[in-house]
Amino acid sequence: MKVAKFGGTSLASAEQFRKVGRIVASDPQRRIIVVSAPGKRYKADTKVTDMLIACAERCLAFGSADEEVRAIAERYGEIARELGLGDAITKTVANDLRGRLAGDKKHRGRFIDTLKAAGEDNCAKLFAEFLRSLGLEASYVSPREAGLLVSDEFGNARVLPESYANLRRLRERPGVTVFPGFFGYSPKGDVVTFPRGGSDITGSVVAAGVKAELYENFTDVDSVFVASPSIIEKPCAIVEITYREMRELSYAGFSVFHEEALEPAYRAGIPVCIRNTNNPTAPGTIIVPERTLAAGAVTGIACDGGFCSVYMSKYLMNREVGFGRRLLQILEEEGISFEHCPTGIDNISVILREKHFDAAKEARVVERIRRDLAVDDVSVERDLALVMIVGEGMRHTVGIAARATAAFARAGVNIEMINQGSSEVSMMFGVKAPDAHNAVRALYHEFFVKPAAS
Ligand code: ASP
In 258-408, where do the E strands start and end? Predict the structure, then answer.
């Protein structure tokens, strides 16, 4: 059996519903369909999830949100009417939202999550109805009934391990089961959502629970590209990639698939295929546990900004037992997660995400490093970007670093830091943020244009 997940743009309008209906009907193996809430129909449009958040906030501030309820219900009504399903859904959605808005408001996060989840929940019900209108046997299932249990971290749910055995029972349901993405239930019975974009996580968890042969993730691009199309014009597509490579690329800014969504499929060994609802015959990108390494050791190039580095040096640091532990302890006590930690003989840097390191934290951390670690020198550099080249084949290929650094030199990009992951699947370069796109272009030319031309 296959689990197929459709994102917000795939379900944004009646026309998109029809495309998804055809995709589902064309393969009887597609037995579980996970849906997002209707997304943007055009660039300036608003996603239903954002409308729901605004609705919840309006109600918290003013006690009601009639206009917002009407507009959200109308999004569903318009889709249903165009699909020939009548107008009943408008009332159903409005009543559902009013019921949620009448709920307990003492805990802001819980209240907002209850509203946010309505987007996918109503979309799943409407999509099941649409499939039935096409003559398919189809039913909606609630994550509560299916046993998708999550932690009670509102807006940041984590799947509880018992969910997998519960979800396995979905295999026994007849026909096509439509499952709303993005939320589960806490053991106490509260609705809790995953982070934004989290329907990808639901799909992966459900696929792992039912031990699917394949998890298909339908979105609005033909495939994952070797570099961001916002930096490189018409980059090459990635046909096959390993979980590890995908994880590294997502870390540094690839956003086709939610970063946390890969883990359940990875642990269950289920291949994930990224495909395009608007071009379903395109083969897409398949994410697999292992792959045969073909020529061209680099699979992808990613870059992400918003990093900073804390550099320190101390004469004879390398002889001081416990220096690294004490440094990381300072960060831990400040609640800062560190990203990388390149070291020299008498110096060490920690790379942090700037969003976790505001000016007040910087002042405290620098002061403690000076005082507790008695360093000779400490400095902070902000506005850094990390540029990564990723590829399983790099492990067995000599000269990748030389080619990358030569490409940087030709492009006039100064490298602030180099770090090769211990797994040798990735190589990372810290550069000043304004140089990042130039750096990606230089690497793309080196690894994807030049070899083909020569
Ligand atoms: N609808 C939710 C969001 O916009 C979840 C998702 O689409 O995956 O974040």
Answer: 272-276, 285-288, 300-313, 338-340, 347-353, 377-390
